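Hi U.,

Before I forget, here's the chain from the pilot set. I'm dumping it here mostly so it's searchable later in email.
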Amino acid sequence: MTTADTAPAPAAGPAEDPGADRAEDLGFGWRGDAVDLPAYLERVGLDAGLPPTEAALRALHRAHVTSIPFENLEIMLGRPIETGLEAVQDKLVRRPRGGYCFEHSALFAAVLERLGFQVTGLLGRVMMGARKLRPPTHGILHVRLPDRPADEPGWLCDVGFGGGPLEPLRFAGGAAVEQDGWAYRLRRDPAGPGPLGSADRWELHQRDPGGWIRRHVFTTDEAYRIDFEALNFFVYAHPRSPFTTRPFVQRFLAEEHRVLDGTTATVTRPDGSVETREHAPAALPDVLASEFAITLEGDDPARLVAWLEARA
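Structure:
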């Protein structure tokens, strides 16, 4: 008698669902069907019923940028940064916290998709004036209005950089755009297409107190959620990532840009004026709450202070 003769017959499984493959998440799109749209709109202070129009896109972008801060504090608190929609909604929407580019862009993409916009992920290389090539560690979005001609320029939505823009920028022209005194320009990379001619290359410039600076460069090659997830791991876990070395928090408003870099707080205004203050590590939880709209819960305030004091 063989083992097969004595082994119990396998249990009968459920009948195959011919629609199961269609329901499987294959990694395309931004899970707009799963976003909690009412909670998100309440978080950013907008009413429901937004149609997928240019005016709505501008309003959503401005509301998101000025309502949800930028921060990397999970790294200091000893936790990984997650980019899945459920985790991002819990942190950025349901709690008084913020996030960085991959979290912001994943959330904003899901909201736009739910509202009927056409959304494509892109990856930027943050240069901030540097000439040496840097890795693609910045998640941004290419957004188009529905039912428009294929050759009509879309919009760059960059809600996760922490320093604006307040509203999306059109993929056209290259002229400077003023937004409440802040200035940006989106233009094609003078080098033109890549060596294989695969995709357009673009540069985003911003005007700082010292003048114009090339902020980041990118191509229009499509990026997906899995790309955000992989690069997010590098940003929060790699020892050479600048985000692992200190807290970096931003709150961008029409009238001022607040930055907390380590224990140094800076306020920059559209006219170029800058104010700087130093804070003791023990004061940072209160500074985060009062100046950046970020409330740390449980033992997180003590953990952040301990992390800072150990590295003072």
